[in-house]
Design goal:
Largest sheet: 2 strands, antiparallel
Structural class: mainly alpha
Number of domains: 1
Number of strands: 2
Oligomer: single chain
Radius of gyration: 22 Å
Number of helices: 19
Shape: globular
Order of helices and strands: HHEEHHHHHHHHHHHHHHHHH
Strand order of the largest sheet: 1-2
Amino acid sequence: MIQGIDYAAIAPPLILAISAIALLLADAFDVPRRVLSLLSSGALLAALIAVIVLAPGDRRATFCLPDGLRAGGPRSCSYVADDFTLLFQGIILGAAVIVVLLSLREITDSKMPVGEYHFLLLAAVIGALALVAARDLILLVVALETLSLPIFALAALRRYDGTASEAALKLFLVSVVSTAIMLFGISLVYGATGAMHLDRIAPALAQLDADLDPIASVGSVLVLAGFAFKVAAVPFHFWAPDVYQGSPLPVAAFLSVVSKAAGFAGLAIVLALGLPAYGHVWGPVIAVLAALTMTLGNLLALRQRTAIRLLAWSSVAQSGYMLAPLAVGSQRLPEAVAATTAYVALYAVMNLGAFAVVIGYHRRRTLDDYRGLARHAPATATALAFFLICLAGLPPGVMGLFAKVVVFRATVAGGVTWLAVVMAINTVIGLYYYLAWAVRLFTPSAEDEAHAAPGLAARAAIAATAAGAIVLSIAPQIVLQTVSQAT
């Protein structure tokens, strides 16, 4: 079987694939570190430009089944570049550019091999881009593993650091188990429906025989469990705090934003396009997962005294908010997907901003180390306080408040009122540790010791995320309108 390939549709991941190989070869010929970093960021920007060029055009698809494979059936495609795909690809690539900027100092300080670092980072981004475009279960799994495998190596790239190796091992073991669970779920769904493409699975499940209903139900829940690991949802969350702390900080930022965004996109695709007929099965499961995830994440964040572990547990709690709208099941599912997508887009900006400051001042490990930061770096302290207020969902961080209102409204509209109540309680809990950290920034320190200032790249990352947060706080409707069109 010979078919044409729409190279325009796959341009973003294709650009990164060629660039990743070129970077690895350039590193073998001792190209300077700064040049390799520029090549990496240039490749990401080129892929982002390709996404922007594709955005005004029509939906594109490739790797499709022949028209006559099933009489009267639709032309099913494995890779689809529609508005939803391009929106998430834009989020992923924009966040990856910030991660590269934050990596420049870390690579030098930690003495990591720069060529391998950028090759693995681009490979993980390729997996994320393919994941959000996948429309069959096989490509979804392959893309998910392409995203995950390089991260194991990135987490352990500080080879002399036993903590980094331990973090990578924990991430690897949990990932292997979750992948096995997900593959078993896919085998059950395929056994019940005889299809792998989501647009064929959905009608098959809607007309499924009663004898196969338990098999499909179990398969749907197991597929959901595989994505629960990727988004750090309870009970697949316990890798997150140790991995965030043990990994290089830019890798933790990548996990917190890029990997999480790709995971939620893949989850939304599977639920909305493949499994809507079983919303009554996976809806209550997601509701319980969301409640447990936000509650456990917030309660444990209250106990943290180091910045990176607080951000880790905060990231777990934020996953619970993102899951909440999807708990509506098949009721008002498009609105729920739009709410989750909007939250992911807004969360990416404010969480990356917080990570940018923490990476820039990596010697300030505990929260108390941030006391008096406003005296030495008033602009940076103000930016971090603004990011924390956004994460808490308080004015003037309107983007964070807007994000929580959107998911709260979608959850209530879907009839899951009890989950909305849990969400409101958790929002109040989250206020404490975000504001406690923000207050420290403007509290005089007993030692009043100045730490090394962030490098130029880190300052650029902080400025970019702060500008994005300010714009989206002034006009948050930009995100909602874009997401509404995409979903």
